[in-house]
Design brief:
The chain is of the alpha+beta class and 94 residues long. It has helices spanning 2-21, 29-38; strands spanning 58-66, 69-77, 83-88, 91-93.
Length: 94
């Protein structure tokens, strides 16, 4: 049952991600991501690299588990507490 629930959630997430990426209102997100990569804030897979304050130390919080497997978590700066990114179901969101 849990596996079926997980697969349905993955399909829903993939559909939402596809709609989001192909929506005309979100064309500027690519520029935003490219700027973050150029400034060294994130890696090419959108994994947070450092905070705009210059701190490279990060803290994981708001972890969500299904069974023993982590499904989602957020990352914030250890120094200033700014949110740096959110990982969910294999993808980073900035």
């Amino acid at each position: 049952m849990e596996l079926l629930f997980w697969k349905v959630n993955m399909i829903i997430y993939d559909i939402r991600f596809w709609i989001y990426r192909h929506s005309p209102s979100n064309l500027n997100i690519d520029k935003h991501v490219k700027l973050q990569i150029q400034h060294g804030l994130v890696y090419s897979d959108l994994c947070p690299k450092r905070c705009p304050c210059g701190c490279k130390e990060q803290v994981e919080h708001d972890k969500d588990y299904m069974g023993y497997q982590i499904m989602e978590y957020s990352v914030k700066c250890k120094k200033c507490g700014a949110g740096l990114g959110h990982w969910a179901y294999g993808y980073w969101q900035v």
